[in-house]
Amino acid sequence: NSTEFNGRARYRLGVTLEVPAGCGAAANMVKELGITSFALGTNDLSLLYLGGADRNSPVPAISDYEEGVPLLARSFISFIQDTIRSIRIAVRETGRECSVGLCGQINEPKLHPLNYGSLLGLVDYIAAVSSQMVPVVTLLAARSLVQQYAPPRTD
What we know:
By secondary structure, this protein is of the alpha/beta class. It is 38% helix and 13% strand. It has helices spanning 20-33, 42-49, 74-94, 134-149; strands at 14-17, 37-41, 65-66, 69-70, 99-103, 125-126. The model has no long low-confidence stretch (mean pLDDT 76).
């Protein structure tokens, strides 16, 4: 809208992180390129981090199950958490605002609180979620926030 921007268009450059090396370079992208908007591509990233060969491989899951749901490796979840934290710290040092999200085919098993559900309180948005998953995402985000901030139960 040229009226809103005094005749100039403004764009915000963002990066989708699809490979582990990209996640490792994210803080440098903030510092050297001024990028402050990131999306973590959950499909390829989970495959490559956990040793999958390509997009046609099933997402590797550890052998444990919770409520019948295969659980992703805890090291992968920690890797994503560390990536998000390093991005936010690097952006905070620049004094700018940051946007970090998850994208990719995020299905119900992946959204289990012990998988990506624990990340929902750390991200600003989730992309590529089917309309049927919106209530699930909302409930998991609420559950994650309650677990993070609620006082311990005493019963």
